[in-house]
Amino acid sequence: MSTYDADALGWFGGAGAFGGRFMPEALIAALDELDVAWREAMADPAFTGEFDRLLHEYAGVPSLLYDATRLSEHAGARILLKREDLNHTGAHKIRNVLGQALLTQRMGKTRVIAETGAGQHGVASATAAAYLGLDCTVYMGEVDTERQALNVARMQLLGAEVIPVKSGSRTLKDAINEALRDWVASVDETAYLFGTAAGPHPFPSLVLSFVRGIGDEARQQCLDQFGALPDAVAACVGGGSNAIGLFAGFVDDPEVAIYGFEAGGDGVETGRHAATIFAGSIGVLHGARTYVLQDEDGQTIESHSISAGLDYPGVGPQHSALSAAGRASYLPVTDAEAMDAMALLARTEGIIPAVESAHAVAGALRVAKERPGQTLLVNLSGRGDKDMGTALEWFGLGRAGAQEQGEQG
């Protein structure tokens, strides 16, 4: 068993280490039902065959592996991009959601709920629900509905009800809280499409089973296209679904270094960040034991990031286990570093990444200085259309003189 594989009770890294299930009694039966249904489905060739068909014919995977030569020239190392931004709905999220929505249909439930930060999981959930004829409700922090207004509109056009959450920090953490409350009250007809590889058992393992194709594809593409594995792989980490999907393909290759880049926000030293593993401590959040941003009394601290998708004070337990085992390194990237990387990728390769993904690019540029001439594989988890409002404000775009200000930004 690897550190990213859970035992029968959902523990990663050994019993009592990371993961588990810390939930109200009212949801234990639902989690058990989900666990059994998921394991039976994954052992059923009819289910996995339909999942593979949807990924190929509907979602557009396997995604490309792209040799970013101009960015590489700037970095001083060869940078390969796994183009998850080219998937249907513009992010890796569609893989996870299609799997969970198919499972919902198999379980005979008619409604799905989801939480979302950057909006990509919400859009993917609304898309899968529309495709499979399921009712869909998406919870989203009020702050995130404002900075991701385009994705709110996309969800509504797809037929989903979007409920802004006005409690707490009005971001992803609070959206998850509200989605869990809804699930407790409606579990008989509702499935919760968890948006990342976090939460109570079996969600971390279940989500990994649907997104691990990112890493499996990338590993084989490296061998087919370049005849060798990369020296290192990198991804951004909020909850950590895109990252664990990529890492799963390489975690058993000890010669491949693994880097996860968390949201450093204004800088870890300022306290305004979401660098959960780098600067957090072990606690319990949303049903799992993992690294959490918390105070000395165990109360969760509000996180901060320019990227809504990384603005989360917890992380998936697999990442905690990989960090504790020393198999992966988790480092912070500031808002400014990420936005600089966003502009650099746009201007060297003609690719506008999501702000989340720009954290991974920025981290890879830093790693490249330590590994000149080596090959670094970066998961480009989403595209930047949704973040143009953020870019417009950060760089001062959309008016005369914007070019100069953008270059200074």
TrEMBL record:
Pathway: Amino-acid biosynthesis; L-tryptophan biosynthesis; L-tryptophan from chorismate: step 5/5. The modification N6-(pyridoxal phosphate)lysine is found at K93. It catalyses: (1S,2R)-1-C-(indol-3-yl)glycerol 3-phosphate + L-serine = D-glyceraldehyde 3-phosphate + L-tryptophan + H2O. Its EC number is 4.2.1.20. SUPFAM superfamilies: Tryptophan synthase beta subunit-like PLP-dependent enzymes. It comes from the Bacteria. Residues 64-382 form the Tryptophan synthase beta chain-like PALP domain. The keyword Amino-acid biosynthesis applies. Its cofactor is pyridoxal 5'-phosphate. InterPro entries: Trp_synth_beta, Trp_synth_beta/beta-like, TrpB-like_PALP, TrpB-like_PALP_sf. Keywords: Amino-acid biosynthesis, Aromatic amino acid biosynthesis, Lyase, Pyridoxal phosphate, Tryptophan biosynthesis. Pfam families: PALP. Belongs to the TrpB family. The beta subunit is responsible for the synthesis of L-tryptophan from indole and L-serine. Tetramer of two alpha and two beta chains. This is Tryptophan synthase beta chain. It comes from Nocardioides humi. The gene is trpB.
